[in-house]
């Protein structure tokens, strides 16, 4: 979802590795992150299957923001 200026409002931060082989994306809510994991894990991008996962040491929180 975007604001009127076309800026994403559902992603807090996105960083790409200079090699282009991996990236880190932080969503604004736990629910959005879970949805992205379900929708995009295994999806093909530029001829390769994406592999999505939680960060190492991730601890689930149960304070979903809607």
In short, what is this structure?
The chain has 66 residues and is of the alpha+beta class.
Structure write-up:
The protein has 66 residues and is of the alpha+beta class. The protein has a domain at 11-49. It contains one helix and four strands; from the N terminus they run ββαββ. It has one helix at 30-40, and strands at residues 11-16, 23-27, 44-45, 48-49. The strands form two sheets. It has a two-stranded antiparallel sheet. Strands 3-4 form a two-stranded antiparallel ribbon.
Order of helices and strands: EEHEE
The share of residues in helices is 10-25%
Secondary structure class reads: alpha+beta
Lateral strand order in the biggest sheet? 1-2
Q: Name the average pLDDT.
A: 83
Basic shape: globular
Distance N to C terminus: 14 Å
Please name the defining characteristics of this protein.
alpha+beta; globular; two-stranded antiparallel ribbon; 66 residues
């Amino acid at each position: 979802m975007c604001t009127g200026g076309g800026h994403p409002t559902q992603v807090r931060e996105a960083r790409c590795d200079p090699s282009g082989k991996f990236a880190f994306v932080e969503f604004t809510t736990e629910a959005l992150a879970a949805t992205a994991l379900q929708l995009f894990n295994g999806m093909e991008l530029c001829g390769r299957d994406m592999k999505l996962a939680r960060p190492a040491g991730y601890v689930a929180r149960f304070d979903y923001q809607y």
